[in-house]
Amino acid sequence: MPYRRIPNTDAARIKALKTAIEKCSNTDFREMAISAKTLSEAKATLSKFERLYELYQQAFSTQVKANKSFQHKVKNCRMYLSHFIQVLYFCVIRSEIKSEHLGLYGLQDSNMLVPELASNEQLLEWGRRIIDGENSRTVKGGVPIYNPSIAKLSVMFSIFKEGYQVQQQYQKTTTHYLEEISNYRDVVDKVIYEIWEEVEQANFDYPNEERIKNNIEYGIVYYKRKGEDF
Questions:
Q1: In the chain, is it the N or the C terminus that has fewer CB atoms within a 10 Å radius of its CB?
Q2: In the CATH hierarchy, which fold is given to the domain comprising 3-223?
Q3: DSSP structure string for 15-73
Q4: What is the pTM of this model?
């Protein structure tokens, strides 16, 4: 005997509910294989689940599109920050800036190497440190670094930081809807299970081939074992 399996994707869950509902809408009330109560539950469940699914898809799409623009901001910030630190080191090597001033930037133990800037969090941390350090040094009378200037770096950092905060909000929204969908799947699966149980029971006395055909019309998905026919 072929066996059935509850859908394991959200799109398949929606299709299963829609198929059963559409089959009922095209069937005389007295001949429906599922009860009016189960049909009502299926319609309400489908409506809510489809809405959650659409909201998640929209949120995810917005996040992906925004991320393309955000990655450009990340690249610019990393480039300017890395360049500024390298220029700072050259100034120290040329004795234009005292080596002990590296502590103002949090670079006292850096061995004249650019710190790791691979992650957004590292960019946030080092961007703040470098900007604060340069402002602190120049306030005390130090000659500002140019090419790039701290003003230009600050602009790139601010643009990156704002983009990061926006992207975090997009991710939060996407995660929220994904959790909503995940929490509701058990409800959806339960309704699908009830529909399929009622359908199989209603068609139980039909010959095997006809029974399988009737059940499939209500959205039941059957799988054959190796070497098995319907």
A1: N
A2: Ferritin (1.20.1260)
A3: HHHHHHHHHHHTS-GGG-SS-HHHHHHHHHHHHHHHHHHHHHHHHHHHHHHHHHHHHHH
A4: 0.80
